[in-house]
Amino acid sequence: MLKGPHTSATWGELLRTIGFAHSPGVLRIFSFIPFVGGIISFGASIWFLIAGVIGVRQALDVSTGRALVVCVVGWLVYLVIIMLISLLLVGVGGLF
């Protein structure tokens, strides 16, 4: 959908870069720690968003702005899916 004139990559290239970019998400294991768990989780999220933009930029040979748009669109889809799963498992009261 957001393909540029020189965009060319295989699924393997893209999956490798995105996989490496999301590796800081392992730090979310520590999110259960009181007071600092939320900070650690938030920091890991920002870290892998930035790494994801860099990975998409390199894998797809696009500009940083286009890579940022691709990552934000993907993040929004991810957010909607997580919210739908939460609604199914917990109910409306569990979201807030």
Report what the structure shows:
There is one protein chain. The chain is mainly alpha-helical. It has one domain (11-95). 68% of the residues lie in helices and 0% in strands. Helix 1 runs antiparallel to helix 2 (37-60) and helix 2 (37-60) crosses helix 3 (64-89). The longest helix is centred in the last third of the chain and has 26 residues, at 64-89.
Q: How would you sum up this structure in a few lines?
A:
The protein is mainly alpha-helical and 96 residues long.
Topology record:
Blueprint: H1 11-21, H2 37-60, H3 64-89, H4 92-95
Which properties best describe this structure?
96 residues, mainly alpha, 4 helices, single chain
Structural class based on helices, strands and sheet pairing: mainly alpha
Beta-strand percentage range: under 5%
| Total of DSSP H or I helical runs spanning 4+ residues | 4
Largest sheet: none
What's the number of structural domains? 1
Distance between the termini: 34 Å
Order of helix and strand elements from N to C terminus: HHHH
Low-confidence stretches: none
Coarse morphology: globular
Number of DSSP E strands? 0
Average pLDDT works out at 80
Mind telling me the C-alpha Rg? 16 Å
The portion of residues assigned to helices is 55-70%
